[in-house]
Amino acid sequence: MNNEVRKTPLYALHEELGGKMVPFAGYAMPIQYRAGIVQEHLHTREAVGMFDVSHMGQLVVRGSDAASALEKLLPIDVQGLAINQQCYAVMTSETGGILDDLIITRWAENEFFLVVNAATAAADIAHLQQHLRGCDIRVLGQQALLAVQGPMAGELIGELAPATRALTFMHGARVELFGEDCYVTRSGYTGEDGFEISVAASAVERVARNLLNDGRVQMIGLGARDTLRLEAGLCLYGNDMDRDTTPVEASLLWSIAKSRRADGAKAGGFLGADVVLGQIAEGVARKRVGFSVQGKIPVRAGADLIDEAGNVVGKVTSGGYGPTLGAAVGMAYVDRGYEKIGTSLQALVRGRSIPIVVAKTPFVPQRYYRG
Amino acid sequence: MSNVKYTESHEWFSVEGDEVTVGITDFAQSQLGDVVFVELPEEGAELAAGDEVAVIESVKAAGDISLPFAATVVAVNGALPDEPELVNSDPMGEGWFMRVRPQNPAELEALLSADAYAALVDGE
């Protein structure tokens, strides 16, 4: 393992903007800027927040049978993706655990673009190389990634590249922004309408500075990225799911294509399918749920959940204060029988019992642009 | 101000007569980030030296305040439950936590002076 802390091409800009840099997945990343997490979070919900997500892995998989080969690792309909269409996918292990979650985009008939988590990128590449023998797997090491998120993002990017106005959620296009070649997708991980912009590392600072010149745009750190995705009910890899949890336990059934389920046209055929399809049929012993807390006391990851009799029936995997809500929310794994919305439980915080209620996610309505 | 003392763990103690107002410093609030919840002791509580007397939750993390001397709580800041952000906006003023009466006021002499605290923060 390499312990050296890596820097993204925007490191100097982060420092200039007063970014508080912290180690994250091997990179020095801004947790927040001068305005602070709450203001940054609210700005993203009201205008446009820009995030440096260049630490994430960008890969290209190419090969004459790449689509069918990828279906061995991802329980989605890869072959059914249109060119420039993308899909959220979990990558399953032989035992049905989640090795990573990623976004896959079809660039061409036999070419796919994958964005994977920074902490798992090296393991993902090894896994792809092991299982996709006929494919060429290329790491886009000189490519940076910006996320531009918020209700004014569509208008902003549309002014700069009119072709993006036609993009609906989970579709991409190759466009020029400020004269630079970019691959822009209408996606993100905040629950808001927005875009992810893949651009050459050598050009990203110029694109970022130009975007920041627009009064609607503010740079946002990882702290607000976390509170935004939590309010949106989205899982964080390593917290809310990992190789010891299956997509069924993680309540990510929607990420398994109908065609890949037991009665589908291409049933199974992915790693761990026997486990995952068995769990869909028979249910699971524990499941991920959302919960809300009365008031502002954050109930954080690691807190035990107990029932009326004092039995431990769950554990929090993500939790904190939701600035849009003005209240504390979280996600937890609970034993079978406690997953119903409206179930009352107690969270143990510093020895005190805090009442919580199992709640529907997302906590804040998603505002994806669906046309 | 000469009647304010500090700890290495970034609490301030403002001495007025036989009562002491307790809070966290501007440096501490800037390190914590946005404060979203503060848990305070009950008025009248008897606290021993080293007791954890308040919990401060920011968006990022939880922190706590401990008292370096034994004291009785005579008042708590009733505004904080509804406006925890006062800790960020005015840590040395409106964002105070509690007023206590020390059992042995002489113990305060051992705490850091404003100059000593400033030197400490400069080093961090």
UniProtKB/TrEMBL annotation, chain A:
Its EC number is 2.1.2.10. One of its GO terms (molecular function) is aminomethyltransferase activity. InterPro entries: GcvT, GcvT/YgfZ/DmdA, GcvT/YgfZ_C, GcvT_C, GCVT_N, TrmE/GcvT-like. Residues 10-258 form the GCVT N-terminal domain. Gene3D superfamilies: Aminomethyltransferase beta-barrel domains, Aminomethyltransferase fragment, Probable tRNA modification gtpase trme, domain 1. Keywords: Aminotransferase, Transferase. The keyword Transit peptide does not apply. Signal peptide: none annotated. Residues 286-364 form the Aminomethyltransferase C-terminal domain. It catalyses: N(6)-[(R)-S(8)-aminomethyldihydrolipoyl]-L-lysyl-[protein] + (6S)-5,6,7,8-tetrahydrofolate = N(6)-[(R)-dihydrolipoyl]-L-lysyl-[protein] + (6R)-5,10-methylene-5,6,7,8-tetrahydrofolate + NH4(+). Belongs to the GcvT family. This is aminomethyltransferase. It comes from Microbulbifer salipaludis.
Automatic annotation (TrEMBL), chain B:
It holds the Pfam family GCV_H. The modification N6-lipoyllysine is found at K60. Binds 1 lipoyl cofactor covalently. Keywords: Lipoyl. The glycine cleavage system catalyzes the degradation of glycine. The H protein shuttles the methylamine group of glycine from the P protein to the T protein. The glycine cleavage system is composed of four proteins: P, T, L and H. This is Glycine cleavage system H protein. The gene is gcvH.
